[in-house]
## 1
Amino acid sequence: MDIKDDFTLIKECLDGNTGSFEIIVKKYQLKIISLSYKYTKNHADAEEVAQQSFLRAFNSLDKFRFESQFSTWMHRITVNCALNFINSKEKVKEKETISIDSGQINKQEDSGKDPQISAGSDAETPYNHYNMGKLAEHTEKVYNSLPKDLKLVVKLREIEDLSYEEISAKTDMPIGTVRSRLHRAREIMISALKDHLDE
Amino acid sequence: MSKNNLKNIEILYLIKSFLKKDFPSFLSKDFSSKVMSKINVQPRKTYFQYFTKLAIASSFAIVTLALIKVINFDTYNFESTTISKTKTPTYNTSNQQMDSNCQHKNKKADLDGKKCK
């Protein structure tokens, strides 16, 4: 599986290929949702902020200077969106407090939200969400069951973010071998998780 | 890119975040498709829009230039006037000196014990 780098994907987006942005979304969705959650402390809100962030990023892609990393730029956008979201929410809360019918409004809002999502990680997973804890457990099992040579390559590439050249230098393996082992390891892990996702 | 390939990319990044132990507790199954549907709904910036903006700006410039040329400024009579400024006597307190004829009328000086020569 050949994944293009961020700059190439952005250039493709700027040329009118919005499909390339979907790859960017899939690449960064977890990081952005995690970051948003640090501000919102609520899963539903975190996803909303993440959505806004991706939209804003897409709309201002032409302003992206290819000097910094895309992840840094995206991080800044998300923080701004999260702060704006919190501010607007606080304003709404203030209005509700002032309003005479504040009690009723609060009740309506509470009932409108999915309590399972708001409750935190211990709550039961809604059907339209992935239970990330369980998936992580399963992934770890698959990772631990990998043959040693494949596990090493996965560790260096996926966890430590080393380049192929760095892995090759560190393990005294030709780059071709690094690539093929990583490809094999990825295939095993992806197919194992895919089966688990489909269950 | 095929749907299967996109799914594989999504799973690969799920694996990456699981191995790094940096992931949110929940993720909507259709998160990325929601984002993409919102993006696709938006009106796209097209060359036509850029051209329209350019046309509006240039026509505005042409009209302004034409108006400047049409208005005859010779019909207005501009006169030059000399602005005279009457000088007010300045009183430099730091360099204040008492004149020999004791012309100053500052009573404070007397109070401070300064006497005319």
## 2
Amino acid sequence: MVIAAVNGSLSAIGYGLAAIGPGIGVGLVFAAYIQSTARQPESSKLTLPYVWIGFAVIEALALLGIAFGYAFK
Amino acid sequence: MSGQVGLVAEGIPFPPKVEDFYLPAILEGAYPWLTKFTILVMVAAVVLIGYFLWAYRGPALVPTKRQWIAESIYGFIRNSIAKDMIGHEGVAFAPYLATLFSFVLLTNLFGIIPGIQISPNSHIAFPLVLAVVSYTLFIASGVRKHGFGKYFKHALLPPAPWYILPLLVPIEAFSTFIVRPVTLALRLFANMFAGHMILLVFTLGGFALLNADSLFVKPISLLSWLMAVALTFLEVIVAILQAYVFVVLTASYLQGALAEEH
């Protein structure tokens, strides 16, 4: 007897799990930027490109998750 | 009233699928070559060339508004990306970076302009071409500056003790020559794809909720559509940010290729 069943694709759950790491990572990048800017306001322009590079590199992991969620059917 | 809307909503498929991104051809039998996407790319190219030619017709020392907008786009890329990140050699790349930025920005913004509402960049082919151009450019300019052997020696041999090199060289090769172009293309593609998918989920989800049997579920469709509106504004930010990130990463790869010593 089936008491409960789950239908549909497991990749949604997989993507949810995969997004945890990049979520923490992106948070760390911006936390570090805010902290460094609070300590040294003049450095905000200097560090901004590195913020976006770091953000983009980490975010790529989350986006790989989306892409592969569709690829691994 | 509600019944009428319900009837309209009857044929709306939910949930959205990847197949929703494959729009039919404009003309019969012209499938991959004449779709909404290829036309949008051509429109973007024509609009950008036309706009910058028009804005710079009869340039004045005290710029008019149109000249000022075009100059601030170019000046922003030239000063805060090309010069700041690459150095004095970067000015030579400013035209390419500015073109890249305005093209990616415009094609991204197609994703939220009413009536167009899909970005060509939500198909991997278009970001891939842009990424391949940037990839070729940074390798070519590195080779041109340092020479073939010296450039690859720079790129592949980090200053490290010899016993760690068998581990480092494959990692460097993989990250510089494979991961860079792939992530450059995939990042833009996945952002535009996911953005369009999210808007589809909330817009079509509103109709799906309206079609629900329970009277208490129907009003939630309004909430869903409000979310779609709010997320459209988020997509504006994402469109600008992804264009910026694409250009900043290209500039940082160029900088790495042109750097004297690591």
